[in-house]
Design a protein that fits this description.
Blueprint lengths: L1 H27 L2 H12 L6 E5 L2 E8 L2 E7 L7 E10 L5 H14 L5 E5 L2 E9 L5 H26 L2
Antiparallel strand pairs: 1-2, 2-3, 3-4, 4-6, 5-6
Length: 162
C-alpha cells in the first residue's frame, strides 16, 4: 500500500507540474506571437506585414490568390480577434442568386466563419473576443478564412463578376 500511495502522490505531483508548465506557456505566449507563428506557416510568398497602433495590431499576408487580414485590438478579455479576406467586389451580376448562394454556404460549409459585405466587397470573416482564446482557435480561424477565401474567390468571380 505505501508504494501505491507514493506512486499516486508522484503522479499527482507530475500532473500538477505539467499544469503549471502549461499555464506558464499560456502566460508567456501572447496571442500576437501565436498569430505571427500561424501566418508564417501559411505565408508561402513571404508577404506578411504588420501594422501596430493604438487600436491594436493588423497583419496582412497573401494566401494563394487572396489577401488575408488579421486584427487583434489587444490582449485583454474584452478585446476582439478578427480574421477576414475579400473574395469579390460589388456590384456583381445577379446579386440575389449570389446572396442566396452565400447564405447557403454560411449554413453548410463555412464552420465558424461567414460571408458578409464589407466596404462594398463580399468577404469571409471570423470574429470573437480574446476571452479564453486558445492557440488552436487562432490557428483554426486564420486557416479557415484563408482556405475558404482562396477556394471560392475565383469561382465566385467567374460566376458573378462583371
Amino acid at each position: 500500500m505505501p508504494e501505491e500511495t507514493l506512486e499516486t502522490a508522484a503522479s499527482e505531483s507530475q500532473i500538477e507540474e505539467a499544469a503549471i508548465a502549461d499555464e506558464l506557456i499560456e502566460e508567456t505566449t501572447s496571442h500576437a506571437e501565436v498569430i505571427e507563428t500561424v501566418i508564417s506557416s501559411l505565408d508561402a510568398s513571404d508577404t506578411a506585414m504588420v501594422s501596430r497602433g493604438e487600436g491594436g495590431n493588423i497583419w496582412k499576408f497573401q494566401y494563394g490568390t487572396v489577401e488575408v487580414f488579421v486584427q487583434m485590438t489587444g490582449e485583454a478579455e474584452e478585446d476582439i480577434f478578427t480574421v477576414w479576406a475579400s473574395v469579390l467586389a460589388l456590384p456583381v451580376n445577379d446579386e440575389p442568386k449570389l446572396f442566396r448562394k452565400l447564405l447557403e454556404m454560411n449554413w453548410n460549409s463555412t464552420f465558424e466563419a461567414s460571408f458578409g459585405i464589407c466596404d462594398n466587397k463580399i468577404a469571409i470573416s471570423a470574429q470573437r473576443t480574446v476571452t479564453d482564446l486558445s492557440p488552436e482557435e487562432i490557428s483554426r480561424a486564420i486557416t479557415l478564412v484563408a482556405g475558404i477565401a482562396d477556394e471560392n474567390n475565383e469561382l465566385l468571380q467567374a460566376e458573378f463578376g462583371q
